[in-house]
Amino acid sequence: MSDESPWLVVGLGNPGREYAGNRHNVGFMVADLLASRLGAKLGRAKRAQAEAAEGRMAGRSGQHGGGPKLVLVKPMTFMNLSGAPVVSLAQFFKVPVAHVIAVHDELDVPFGQVRVKRGGGEGGHNGLRSMSKSLASKDYARVRFGIGRPPGRQDPADYVLSDFASAERKELDFLVDRAADVVEAVVLEGVEWAQNKYHGI
Positions of the site: Discriminates between blocked and unblocked aminoacyl-tRNA (predicted)? Predict the structure, then answer.
């Protein structure tokens, strides 16, 4: 694997205006923010059922556009079929699994926290399950945006497809911004470095 290989950053979510504010769609929110940071615009991908954008990050020296290449992806297949467009674009851009980052909502992390890891299980997340199956590997990085467990006896499936509560929305922009920072840290410095920097906050 060459360090010159691009990075595929996959924001997981469901297409359609009715899902836009759902907890399950924070991956889309982070992908949109990363695109704006790159000065890129997500548009329909030619080779996959997805929206995609390309751009270069600033390098370690802060030089604009001199850093690693990112391919940002929002699968437009609905969550449980996310893997097919991901693997198509990974193959086209020659992205190794080690350079794939999934950004997703995480029930097992409290709201207000962003965590990162490489590999592991899918925790019942259909988007991750589809990615792991299509990539034939679980060894991609995951930026896990905490949404916490549903209150009372609410079904988790209903909870993830509901919008953030009004109190949560006050913090949402800040947390999406932090998740985008975590993605950039993984690309520039690695998963372990990002864990050390962000897991205490």
Answer: 14
Structural domain contains residue 17: yes
Show binding-site residues for tRNA.
19, 78, 80, 126
Asked, for residue 80, whether it belongs to a domain, the answer is yes
User: Binding site: what residues are annotated?
Assistant: 19, 78, 80, 126
The domain tally of the chain equals: 1
Provide CB contacts within 8 A for 164, sequence distance 6+. Answer: 21, 23, 172
Residue 1 counted as domain residue: no
| Residue 24 designated active-site | yes
Task: Quote the mean pLDDT of the chain.
Answer: 93
**pLDDT band at residue 1 using 50, 70 and 90 as cut-offs:** very low
Does some domain include residue 15? yes
- From 24, 99, 104, 125, active-site residue: 24
Model confidence over 64-86: pLDDT tens digits?
667 899 999 999 999 999 999 99
Does 200 have pLDDT greater than 80? no
The whole-model pTM stands at: 0.94
Share in percent of the chain as helix, strand, coil (round to 5): 40, 20, 40
